[in-house]
Structure formats: C-alpha cells, structure tokens
Design brief:
35% of the residues lie in helices and 26% in strands. The chain has 104 residues and is α+β, with helices and mostly antiparallel strands. Strand 4 and strand 5 form a beta hairpin.
Amino acid sequence: MSFAVVQRASYRLLARQRYVNLWVTNVPGPPVPLYLAGAPLLELFPVVPILGNLTLGVGVFSYAGQLNLTAVADRDTCPDVEVFAQGVRSTLDELARSVLASAS
C-alpha cells in the first residue's frame, strides 16, 4: 500500500521538479536465454517512460550475452536525441575496438 502512495505522489511532483531532466536505468537481465511457448527470445529491449518534465530516458538491459540500450526522448524538448544516440554508438564502437586491440 505504501508503494502505491509514494508512486502517486512522485507522479504528481514530477511535473513540477526542476532538478532532473534525464534518467538512466541499468537493469541486469538473465544471463541465459528465455523461452516463450517453446520459442527462444532473441532480444529484449528496455522501454523507459518519459514523465513530467523529463526530456530523455535511457534504458540499458543485459540479456544472454547482449547489452541493449534504448533512448526515449520528448520530441519538443530534446530534438537532438540523434546526436546523443550517435555519440553512444561511436563510444561503444571505440570501446569494442580497444577491447579487441588489448586482447591481441
């Protein structure tokens, strides 16, 4: 019961808060594949809700040896989300190259 009260209060206050405009969540998922009706789940992607005056939400989810990242943005207040996404792509590519270089 207390969780529902805190959740409702958070939603009401979120629209008026001025301190945060981005949130990032990192959820470790299962390290082994999951199945649904006998079919393997190939990929899972997080969906981060945008509430109140938050402009960008980033979800990171690991699943069966994968790391999937999703960026959800408010089109009006964060029109340059593609710049963010490209920066993340290039940084992850650079990280992968450095790991491969150090392994050889």
